[in-house]
Design goal:
This protein is an alpha/beta fold. It contains eleven helices and 17 strands. Strand 10, helix 5 and strand 11 form a beta-alpha-beta unit. Helix 4 packs across helix 5. The longest helix is centred in the C-terminal third of the chain and has 14 residues. The two termini are about 20 Å apart.
């Protein structure tokens, strides 16, 4: 066991604060990672404040982790001390079900182990995330990071990046496709970057006219203000795909009408309440609604390698660990472009 410093929520109505705890001793296939940067995901806030239910306290969030290996278990073969590595949303799965066998650990049929607020399959203890100085993870759930990119910009790729990369690859989005991205936030800005990089013609759909300049800088060819009925009407039957990143309540039907025949709306945001869909908008034009959850380990490594080759990182604001509660409040206001990343040297 190793004593470790972190930041934890002790209850849903309490701010995150310094917390000392113990990381497990290395198991044979474990690597120990000194955390250098950790991205701040909206899921961290939801979990810390128990907005989804089921939070076990104390809770240490953080699943966009980049760091350097400081120690390895006796049977580790994939990594060595000193290598730059990353840890995303998963730290274990059953590894035997059909999905795990296909490298789709995010859809483990038995139940995967999340990086934080999840029972460890070996000893049952609650997992603690990346708002800490170090982490211990099985080598099969660790990713190799290139040193060719700024590490603070790489960290959000472990969640925001793979959450948008995976569905774009699954639906084979590329040259010749017209793609709309709904919502320009942590997920949306990565969806624009990837879709444009894959050769698609990208339109940004937003309620904020102030985001047009950023959308075009990120790779969007067009911008539409969804508060303008005339602009919305002009987009009827225009898109092969819509990547819907919005987690706030909104009208899916308004956007379904923007899809061409056989078009698909890909949902990666999770609104807090059920959404009503008019069946005629699907049936009349053979439209579809799909969803996607992060990516498996092989695909996440593929994404990291692609980003290193094409110089793609997240747009980030680096913060000190002590600023995390202010960062949460700013996230709620949409006041970040486009991901907070904690410099763990500040802890």
């Amino acid at each position: 066991m190793t004593a470790t410093k972190g930041y934890a929520a002790q209850a849903a109505d309490q701010p995150l604060a310094p917390f000392t705890f113990e990381r497990r001793a290395l198991r044979p296939h474990d690597v120990q990672i000194e955390i250098m940067y950790c991205g701040v995901c909206h899921s961290d806030l939801h979990t810390a404040r128990n907005e989804w239910g089921g939070t076990v306290y104390p809770c240490i969030p953080g699943h966009e982790i980049v760091g350097r290996i400081t120690n390895v278990g006796s049977e580790v073969t994939k990594f060595k001390v000193g290598e730059l590595t990353g840890v995303g949303c998963l730290v274990d799965s059953c590894r035997e079900c059909s999905n795990c066998q296909q490298g789709l650990e995010q859809y483990c049929e038995v139940g995967n182990t999340w990086t934080y607020n999840s029972p460890d399959p070996v000893d049952g203890t609650n997992t603690y995330g990346g708002y800490s100085k170090q982490i211990v993870v099985d080598q099969d759930f660790v990713l190799l990071i290139s040193d060719r990119l700024p590490l603070e910009g790489v960290a959000p790729l472990l969640c925001a990046g793979i959450t948008t990369y995976s569905p774009l690859r699954h639906w084979k989005v590329g040259k010749g496709h017209k793609v709309a991205v709904l919502g320009l936030g942590g997920l949306g800005h990565m969806a624009v970057k990837f879709a444009a990089s894959f050769g698609a013609e990208v339109t940004m759909l937003s309620t904020s006219p102030s985001k047009e300049e950023d959308a075009r800088r990120l790779g969007a060819s067009h911008f539409a203000l969804t508060k303008d009925p005339a602009q919305v009407k002009a987009l009827t039957n225009q898109f092969d795909f819509i990547v819907n990143t919005v987690s706030a309540p909104h009208d899916y039907n308004m956007y379904l009408k923007m899809l061409k025949t056989s078009g698909t709306m890909i949902c990666v945001g999770v609104p807090p309440e059920p959404s009503k869909i008019i069946g005629g908008y699907l049936i009349g034009n053979r439209r579809s609604v799909g969803g996607s959850l992060i990516g498996g380990l092989p695909e996440t490594q593929e994404m990291l390698d692609y980003c290193a080759e094409h110089n793609i990182v997240s747009d980030v604001e680096v913060i000190d660990m002590s600023y995390i509660n202010e960062a949460y409040e700013r996230m709620l206001k949409g006041d970040v472009r486009y991901r907070f990343v904690i410099d763990m040297a500040s802890l």
